[in-house]
Amino acid sequence: MEILDSIFLNTKKIFLDLLGCWLPDWMILLVNIGIIIGVIAVLGPVIMMYLTLLERKIIGRMQNRIGPNRVGIFGILQPIADGIKMFTKEDIIPQNADKIVHFLAPVLMVIPALLAFAVLPFGRGMIPVNLNVGLLFFIAVSSTSTICVFMASWASRNKFSILGGMRSAAQMISYEIPMVLSVVPVILSAESLSTYAIVEAQARWSGLHWFVFTPWGLLAFIIFFLCGVAECNRSPFDLPEAESEIVAGFHTEYSGMKFALFYMAEYMNTFTVSALAATLFLGGWEGPVLPSWLWFFIKTHALIFVMFWFRGTLPRFRVDQLMGLAWKLFLPLTLINIFVAGGYHLISDRNFRVAGASAVLLVSFLLFTVFLNRKYMPEKRRYDLVD
Amino acid sequence: MMIPLEHYLIFAATLFAIGIYGALIRRNIIGILISIELMLNAVNVNLVAFSRSTSLAPETGQVFAIFVIAVAAASVAVGLAIVIALYRVRKSVYTEDIHLLKW
Amino acid sequence: MELLNLAGIAGVYTLMLVILIAAVAMVTLRSLFHSALALAAVLIGIAGIYLTLQADFLAMIQILIYVGAVMTLIIFAVMLTEHLSHQTVRQNNRQSPLAIAGICAFLFCLTGVIVRTPWPLQPQNQTATITAMELGKAFMGQYVFAFELISVFLIAALIGAIVIARKDK
User: I need a surface site. Which of A159, A229, B51, B102 has the fewest CB within 10 A?
Assistant: First the structure.
């Protein structure tokens, strides 16, 4: 199993040793960087393509039908057909649109989505760039996609686009705050900002030391995951781009390759947010029998399956319910979570700290959902049927 | 890979000068605010360059720069709130149209 | 390795040049939205400059706060107050030649001062990498008073901004 675990690293090392016979040292460094960049540049879009197929098949099964199955066996070549369709569609630009900004918006949307792949630990020793501030890099880079939403909506010169763009941007910045704050207990407990070090801090006893098995970790995981779903503008938070609401919001006026870039950015965001949730809370590449990169993909795809499940099952939120959830429920809970995690870290008696943390978090959750909302709850309606 | 301190300082001074030019030239109030942001960023670069080269503790400049970022963000927030309130009343964001208190 | 060092230094100077070009574009572009986007480019470039000064935590904070939050505020304000038809309105007042002359004189004096001062360089700081832990210790140690004061300041700014921008009932 050790051989399978480091098969990719060994392959790269053999290849670089082979090249080292006739190339100078600094060029070996550049080839190393080039291989890593090439792998991510290929992996990102390929994952995105097969995620679209997976989503259609899973949602199809939930709706009691088979997904696409015509193009290849089980529809394997369907993403390629989609890609050909998007490449060859006509690229329509509105006449009054701001041409440069209209062109740049989808391009600049894909850049943060791809950059976020650089700090995900895909396996034991397989992280593309081991930054000291890896987690902060991920959060910073994914917060720059708000400007691209504004650019896309403003350059289209369409009132519905601007409205949808502002709603989408408001949603993205509102859900960024609980997302960042819910990660702080993890940083506190792992004592490092590097994603690799966070996975190593969970790798002590196989399976029981993951952060999700602590009270503050469970709450932080749920909040982080839901905020991640909201950041990707997916159901049930997809009011700004739902077709029955506002005709696709900020990407209404885009067609062809530019729309494909927006689509690609959304699915790559889905993958990176799930991968980061698996890394921070579920133990990353850590697991008993199988190779490390396989565990990473299994955990990530389990979370992606939950995201597709949300889309197939839940209705979407209204815009005031969306904002209320972020500001009134998630934000106070994450702040209390930081205190509870600090207390958990300091107290060393295991039973007391689990019970105390769970009690405090449960009471505060009930406070913010039930007790403080008594005034605003709509009263129960009675429908008297005529006999 | 060392770049001399003076080059960073001249770069920061040029950026600051461009910021002052923008703050003096612009008619739009939001344009003046974003030029002020440019000036604050030039000052930050200056602080970090100094703290790496000439200070006794290398993290002093970065702490100071984080404070400047926080104060700049707060000032932009309040400034833009004032601009929006002004737009609601005077229906214009150009500096020539806001002259009620001029003699 | 010499070639990589040279390429690195050339890259830093190119980055500085690109930032200056973006800053000039920011103060001279006619459309306010384009100026705001040029400011976003300048801010990302300055985060790159922080990375060359070995301040990686500060660079990430710069991107997160400035590009993620402050630019969003500025673009919200631009979108709320700009009419879509005012594209060809003149956006600088008549003081342009005087301002350029004043700025050039200012820059000339400042550059002269910078080049002539004997800066007391401390070589041991050149290779120190500041991690988040040392910044945290500085915040909670020597600068704790300023840290608490700035949290009060931020709450005051938050409440003030909400009160000023609220619609009168």
Answer: B102
